[in-house]
Amino acid sequence: MQDKKILPRKVTGFWELEPEQELVFENIIQKIKNVFLRHAFLPLDTPVMEYSEILLAKSGGEIDKQIYRFEKGSTDACLRYDFTVPLARYVAMKEGELTFPFKRFQIGKVYRGERPQKGRYREFYQCDADIIGNENLSLVADAECISLYEDIFNELNLDCQVEISNRKILYGVIESIGEANRFQEISTILDKYEKIGEEETLKLLFELNLDNKKCKILLDFIKIKGNFGEINKNLLKLSKNQTLVEGIEELKEVDQHLKNLSVNNYIFNMNIIRGHNYYTGCVFEVFLKDHHNMGAVGGGGRYDNLANYFSSKKLPGVGMSIGLSRLFDILQQTDLINKQNYQNNNVAIIPLGDTLPQCLSLSSKLRKDGISCEVLFNDKSFKSKLKDANKKGVQTVIIVGENELKALKYSVKNMSTGEQNLLTYEEIINLRR
Amino acid sequence: MQDKKILPRKVTGFWELEPEQELVFENIIQKIKNVFLRHAFLPLDTPVMEYSEILLAKSGGEIDKQIYRFEKGSTDACLRYDFTVPLARYVAMKEGELTFPFKRFQIGKVYRGERPQKGRYREFYQCDADIIGNENLSLVADAECISLYEDIFNELNLDCQVEISNRKILYGVIESIGEANRFQEISTILDKYEKIGEEETLKLLFELNLDNKKCKILLDFIKIKGNFGEINKNLLKLSKNQTLVEGIEELKEVDQHLKNLSVNNYIFNMNIIRGHNYYTGCVFEVFLKDHHNMGAVGGGGRYDNLANYFSSKKLPGVGMSIGLSRLFDILQQTDLINKQNYQNNNVAIIPLGDTLPQCLSLSSKLRKDGISCEVLFNDKSFKSKLKDANKKGVQTVIIVGENELKALKYSVKNMSTGEQNLLTYEEIINLRR
User: Long-range pairs for A177-184 at CB < 8 Å and ≥24 separation?
Assistant: First the structure.
């Protein structure tokens, strides 16, 4: 044994739950997986690393300071920062073999080496589902991705609302005021509207030398929100720009598909911009109902071409994602999940006297009957073991004493009520069913 | 769009399954998880990185060439190469809060930057379960870890055999021939016996200047194998060394606990050495029955002190692990799993004519009734869609035509038999139950 001890600590900003929380978190993941499978999406589990050449293709090889990069021997690789680049790499590699539209989901950890702060992790769970077409892809795909949210949040017993817009409408409005060449700058400002408010937005737009009339159109636009009938009417009042009308037509079709899919919890909201440049059609974000102020817990949209850095084939797609670590944080903060979500259903078996052999056989029998259990086999006193069971949140304790064995029965203690009964094995099994 | 394309390729030696295989693999993981939970182990999901100081504590900070290491800003961290060091770090951090014995499992990827070759990955799945005691830990824990194998392989419909030894017996034998100071060199040679055979083993032992008599004892020892009665008799013939006898006593107790736990598929085998120096008591390996020649698919053992680099508390433990990527490879090579394990149970819904809206409502209804399905909504011909469904391995296709809608029925095609029937929604649901 050595004398100098190293202070045990976790890498700052990395995600690590207590085992009881982890159990709740893994249940959430399992439920989400089930929804994806029900929608006939298949799982893809790409490596945690991609070659730097692949991962940095978008940036022309420039190293983003947020990226964890390794050079080891001849390998120059980075930790993935999202699942979209790995998907693009995968689809480009396999495009000859895949059946399109290709539907895959991926749930796992991604890495961003940013300064850790509240609600921002360097390692966190992300959950993505995408539908990739070959040359073209019906708007049904957009509706299906949006519909996943309602199914997922229903499965989790949570209410959500999806807010939908379309980048063509945004482009059309900006084009209609003659500012198409400054589309990026303007949309970046509008994207902040919710956060910074009207006054600050106006100030930033003025700084771009937009006149009052143009600013008014943009601010009117960003406030348009409602069902399809409402936004259609209000948008057409603003402009009849061709791209804008095209965007409206797309939303109309998506609205129709969503109705056919019995999706209810959605609204159109022109305030949904989505910063990423690669979105080219529908864009959407999802919020927890009654917790809109916590911000979006996921989002996604339509892109023209998934893999243009790796393939000359046109692969349009639409994707939805959920920030799982962020969602879990919000659920804990808002008490939507709490300790009660972790119910320790294990049975603890405590020997009283020399009954360890019988306790072990009992545990084996119970497990074969599908009951999770453990024998408290350590050297502690009976009383300490009861305390341990209590600390672990165990609801049912089975006490195996010599008297009980003679009577072919077990003392079963309900840890909540303190009630204790002498039961046969069959009665225990029935109790747990 | 850019013209120069980057060749899409995966980092060499990293694990990536096709989605259909991934589904089978994830089912295996889920089944293993269920066994751990039934044994009251809780999940722990540590970060993929640990500070280098922590990860390299064992080697005194020396960088192993197999380790992926980053330096980013002030962070000096490595990718985990196993789950034991992260467990030690976690338990040392939380030792005041945990209830001992602490039982946790972890299933995930670990990283070794070795030269990739057949059956050796740089990123692969590992599965560990450990029981950690505080100051002391009953041998019941060893039996419970061993019993996990039988439960897990039963759950996977596979036959396994666990082979068990004890490092104290090995030490005792070597001590009994007066070679205790060369314990490490000798056990390293004996560890290779299975691989290199008797002749080569003898040669290596001779190179250590061991005489004929000593070599004979070691070779007799390494061949001792059987139930407890058999090995007990044969070991005591070799030596009455005190440490050896202590090891036998431990195996006797573990044997008794295993019997009480109704574990059948195990044997004692002195050939099980386990290279790792930190094992101090029972050691074991697990093999697929009828595929012993493929090598162990997992192993583990007892260690005296989990976290001696991080804590002055004595934390003895016992752990079992399964090399999941390796196991999956073997299952595929031996045809124990194959394409048939992936049964595509999704229903494909194909519109015939202008019935897309009705197809979408049908899909939503089916999913609510728990049936996985997808609408083949793309622009292809009806015939191409049938082909796609076939390529995906879909068993059931529902064709929604206008005539069918009038009759309030659906054409249901069995893709294996080609049979097609006109069924009501209720009949479809019943068909799938």
Answer: A177/A210, A177/A213, A177/A214, A177/A217, A177/A218, A178/A214, A179/A210, A179/A214, A182/A208, A184/A277
Domains and CATH numbers, chain A: 19-159+289-333 (3.30.930.10), 345-431 (3.40.50.800)
pLDDT band at residue A431 using 50, 70 and 90 as cut-offs: confident
**Which tens digit of pLDDT belongs to each residue from B309-347?**
999 999 999 999 999 999 999 999 888 886 556 778 899
Give A382's pLDDT tier (boundaries 50, 70, 90). Answer: very high
Statement: residue B433 has pLDDT above 80: no
Q: How crowded is residue A384: how many other Cβ atoms within 10 Å of its Cβ?
A: 12
Which chain A residue has its CA at the smallest distance from B18's CA?
A44
DSSP class per residue in A60-79: TTPPPTT--EEEETTEEEEE
Q: In angstroms, rounded to a whole number, what is the distance separating the alpha carbons of residues A372 and A252?
A: 51
Task: Tell me whether residues B140 and A375 touch, CB distance under 8 A.
Answer: yes
Residue A35 confidence (pLDDT) above 60:
yes
- The predicted structure's pLDDT at residue A275: 77
Could you give the 3-state DSSP secondary structure of residue A252?
helix
d(CA A302, nearest CA chain B) in Å = 16
What is the nearest CA distance from B122 to chain A, expressed in angstroms? 10
Q: Which of residues 372-401 of A touch B (CB under 8 A)?
A: 372-375, 377-379, 388, 391-392
Nearest CA-CA partner of A167 in A94, A254, A267, A275: A275
Chain B residues 329-348 within an 8 A CB cutoff of chain A:
346, 348
pLDDT tens readout for residues A196-211 = 999 999 999 999 999 9
Full-prediction pTM beyond 0.90?
yes
Q: Does B5 touch chain A (CB under 8 A)?
A: yes
> Does B309 lie at the interface with A, CB-CB under 8 angstroms?
yes
Q: Which residues make Cβ contacts (< 8 Å) with residue A322, sequence separation at least 6?
A: A32, A126, A127, A149, A152, A286, A297, A298
Pairing of strands A279-288, A298-303: antiparallel
* Structure token pair of residue B106: 């972890």
Sign of CA dihedral A104, A108, A113, A119: positive
How far apart are the C-alpha atoms of A327 and A333, rounded to whole Å?
10
8 A C-beta contact, residue B379 and residue B356: no
Q: For residues B72 and B64, what is the distance between their CA atoms, to the nearest angstrom?
A: 19
| Chain A contact present for B261, CB below 8 A | yes
**CB within 8 Å of chain A, chain B residues 177-206:** none
